[in-house]
C-alpha cells in the first residue's frame, strides 16, 4: 500500500524499525505515525466502540476525533494518528473504554516546566506560522506549539498550486509553502517551537495568560505570555447515513495525509461525497496516486468548487453526480460497497435511482467546522455563523476576541482557504504585538495592507458568503 512513485512528491522514509501489533511484527519507518504504519500493513480496524462494539478506523488523522484510539505500550486512549512509531512499540486494538494500568503515574501539575514569552501561539498551520513570523519581526518573544510532529498544518498535504497574488504564494504548491514558512520561522531567534505538544487549557492569571499543555503524552508544560493567538484550525464534518462509522470512511484530509504526507494509498477504489473544491482536488490527488475514483456525489444541483477543478476531474473520466446523496456503506469490518441515490427538488430520495459502487474507501469532503474548544473554555463569546462553518468566537478587525489579549486566525476563526488563513495570521501576529506595546506605529500599515488583501480576496463570488459572515461577527462586536 506504500507509494513508490508520484508525479509531484518524493517520499523520504526514515530508518526502518519494527513495531508489534497484537504480537505481530509490522515494518514501520521513523517519522511516521502509528496509524500510518498500520494502514500501510493493511490494518484498518483500530478499535471497537464502547456500547455496540462496532469496528472503528482512521477518520480525521489530525488528532481531533476518537476513531484511532489504541492501547500503546499498555497505555489506552493513545491518538495513533499523531503519535509517532518507536522501535519495539507494542500496539493493541482498544475494546471500548479502557483504564490506565495501576503502575502508570500521570504527571503532576507542580512538576510542569514553565516557558515564558510575550506571545504564545497555539497551532503551527498557515495561520500560526504567519502569526509567529510577523509577531517576531515586530519584536515580540514568541512561543509556538503544535500537537503534530511537523509544522505546516494542512499545507503539508496540498499538492495543488495556489491562486491569488505573488505575495500570497500564487502558483506555489502547498507543500512548498509549508517548507518556505518553516525556513522563515527558524531564521528568527526570538521564536521557540514545541512540537508534539497539545494545549489542554487556557487560563488567566493576573496580567498573564497561561496555556497548559502536554508534550509527547509524558511531559506537562506551562506556557506563560501576555497574549495568545489561537490558530487551532478545524475538523472534518460528518453526515448521517447508514454504517457511516465503518473503517474505510475517511474525512478528505485524512486521505490527503496518508497519500501526500506519508506516501500510503488509502485504498484502491474510492467514492467521494462532496463536489466542493476539497472534493474535486482530492479526486485529482487520488488519481495522481494511482487510485481509481469511481464517482463524486453532490447533493446540491451544481458543483460547488471552481470550474477549472471540475473540468480537470471530468476530463480524467470521473463522473460528478449532482443531486445525489450516499444512502449507506456496506461491509462487515470495513467498507466494501457504497449505495447512492438521486434527490428530488424537495431533497427526498427518488425511488428506483439507487446505484451501487464497489469501493473500499468512502471520502467525505462535506466541509469543516472551526476548532473552538479552547476559546470556549477560556470564556470567549461564541456565536453560530453559518457562513463561517458553525460556531466561532466573536472578534474584531484585529482578530482579537472578547477576552482581551486572546486573538484568533485561520480556520478556527471561520472556514476559508489557506491564503486567507495566512493573511489572518499576519494580522493577528502584528495586532498582538501592537496591543502589548512591543511593535511601533509603523506596523499598523502592514496590518492595514493585510486587511485590504483579505477584503480583495473575499470580493469574488466564492468569498461573498464569508464576507457576509464576518459582517455578522463585527456587528456583534459593535453592538
Automatic annotation (TrEMBL):
<feature type="domain" description="2Fe-2S ferredoxin-type">
    <location>
        <begin position="15"/>
        <end position="97"/>
    </location>
</feature>
<protein>
    <submittedName>
        <fullName>Sarcosine oxidase subunit alpha</fullName>
    </submittedName>
</protein>
<dbReference type="InterPro" id="IPR036010">
    <property type="entry name" value="2Fe-2S_ferredoxin-like_sf"/>
</dbReference>
<dbReference type="GO" id="GO:0016491">
    <property type="term" value="F:oxidoreductase activity"/>
</dbReference>
<dbReference type="GO" id="GO:0051537">
    <property type="term" value="F:2 iron, 2 sulfur cluster binding"/>
</dbReference>
<dbReference type="InterPro" id="IPR036188">
    <property type="entry name" value="FAD/NAD-bd_sf"/>
</dbReference>
<dbReference type="InterPro" id="IPR023753">
    <property type="entry name" value="FAD/NAD-binding_dom"/>
</dbReference>
<dbReference type="InterPro" id="IPR006058">
    <property type="entry name" value="2Fe2S_fd_BS"/>
</dbReference>
<keyword id="KW-0560">Oxidoreductase</keyword>
<dbReference type="InterPro" id="IPR051691">
    <property type="entry name" value="Metab_Enz_Cyan_OpOx_G3PDH"/>
</dbReference>
<dbReference type="InterPro" id="IPR001041">
    <property type="entry name" value="2Fe-2S_ferredoxin-type"/>
</dbReference>
<dbReference type="InterPro" id="IPR042204">
    <property type="entry name" value="2Fe-2S-bd_N"/>
</dbReference>
<dbReference type="Pfam" id="PF07992">
    <property type="entry name" value="Pyr_redox_2"/>
</dbReference>
<dbReference type="Pfam" id="PF13510">
    <property type="entry name" value="Fer2_4"/>
</dbReference>
Amino acid at each position: 500500500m506504500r507509494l513508490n512513485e508520484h508525479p509531484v512528491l518524493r517520499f523520504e522514509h526514515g530508518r526502518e524499525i519494527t513495531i508489534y501489533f497484537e504480537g505481530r511484527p509490522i515494518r514501520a519507518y521513523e517519522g511516521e505515525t502509528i496509524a500510518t504504519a498500520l494502514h500501510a500493513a493493511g490494518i484498518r480496524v483500530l478499535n471497537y466502540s464502547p456500547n455496540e462494539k462496532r469496528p472503528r478506523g482512521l477518520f480525521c488523522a489530525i488528532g481531533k476525533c476518537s476513531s484511532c484510539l489504541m492501547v500503546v505500550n499498555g497505555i489506552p486512549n493513545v491518538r495513533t494518528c499523531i503519535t509517532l512509531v518507536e522501535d519495539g512499540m507494542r500496539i493493541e486494538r482498544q475494546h471500548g473504554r479502557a483504564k490506565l494500568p495501576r503502575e502508570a503515574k500521570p504527571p503532576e501539575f507542580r512538576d510542569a516546566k514553565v516557558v515564558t514569552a510575550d506571545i504564545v501561539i497555539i497551532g503551527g498551520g498557515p495561520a500560526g506560522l504567519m502569526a509567529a513570523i510577523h509577531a517576531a519581526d515586530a519584536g515580540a518573544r514568541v512561543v509556538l506549539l503544535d500537537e503534530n510532529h511537523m509544522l505546516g498544518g494542512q499545507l503539508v498535504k496540498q499538492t495543488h498550486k495556489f491562486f491569488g497574488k505573488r505575495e500570497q504564494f500564487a502558483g506555489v504548491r502547498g507543500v512548498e509553502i509549508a517548507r518556505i514558512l518553516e525556513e522563515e520561522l527558524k531564521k528568527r531567534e526570538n521564536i521557540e517551537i514545541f512540537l508534539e505538544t497539545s494545549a489542554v487549557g487556557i487560563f488567566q492569571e493576573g496580567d498573564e495568560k497561561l496555556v497548559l499543555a502536554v508534550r509527547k503524552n509524558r511531559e506537562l508544560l506551562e506556557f506563560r505570555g501576555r497574549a495568545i493567538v489561537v490558530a487551532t484550525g478545524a475538523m472534518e464534518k460528518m453526515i448521517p447515513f447508514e454504517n457511516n462509522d465503518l473503517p474505510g470512511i475517511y474525512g478528505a484530509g485524512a486521505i490527503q495525509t496518508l497519500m501526500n504526507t506519508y506516501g500510503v494509498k488509502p485504498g484502491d477504489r474510492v467514492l467521494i461525497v462532496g463536489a466542493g473544491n476539497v472534493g474535486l482536488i482530492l479526486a485529482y490527488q487520488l488519481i495522481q496516486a494511482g487510485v481509481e475514483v469511481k464517482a463524486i456525489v453532490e447533493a446540491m444541483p451544481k458543483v460547488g468548487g471552481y470550474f477549472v477543478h471540475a473540468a480537470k476531474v471530468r476530463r480524467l473520466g470521473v463522473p460528478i453526480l449532482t443531486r445525489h446523496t450516499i444512502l449507506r456503506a456496506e461491509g462487515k469490518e470495513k467498507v466494501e460497497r457504497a449505495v447512492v441515490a438521486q434527490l428530488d427538488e424537495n431533497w427526498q430520495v427518488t425511488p428506483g435511482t439507487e446505484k451501487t459502487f464497489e469501493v473500499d474507501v468512502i471520502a467525505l469532503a462535506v466541509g469543516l467546522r472551526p476548532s473552538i474548544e479552547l476559546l470556549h473554555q477560556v470564556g470567549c463569546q461564541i456565536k453560530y455563523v453559518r457562513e463561517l462553518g458553525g460556531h466561532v468566537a466573536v472578534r474584531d478587525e484585529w482578530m482579537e476576541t472578547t477576552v482581551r489579549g486572546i486573538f484568533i486566525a485561520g480556520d478556527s476563526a471561520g472556514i476559508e482557504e489557506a491564503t486567507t488563513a495566512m493573511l489572518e495570521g499576519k494580522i493577528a501576529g502584528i495586532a498582538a504585538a501592537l496591543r502589548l506595546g512591543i511593535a511601533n506605529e509603523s506596523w499598523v500599515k502592514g496590518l492595514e495592507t493585510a486587511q485590504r488583501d483579505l477584503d480583495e480576496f473575499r470580493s469574488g463570488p466564492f468569498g461573498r458568503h464569508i464576507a457576509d459572515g464576518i459582517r455578522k461577527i463585527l456587528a456583534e462586536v459593535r453592538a
